[in-house]
Please model this.
Amino acid sequence: MAYTVKSKKSGKNYILHGRKQVLKGGQTVTLYFFAGEAKEGALDALPEGYEVSENVSTGLPLLKKIKK
Model:
């Protein structure tokens, strides 16, 4: 089952996705984003070292690295 977050402001559910992206220098990174419906790349769990927060004005979820 995909990792889902419910917006406190709008009440909509958002599903976490991830995809691999190759940068110009050849380095591969993973891009994380939330979408309104499950698509290819939906993740089952929150990545280690990250936490979910919400944009106060828009209500959209954000993925942030946990500061040590």
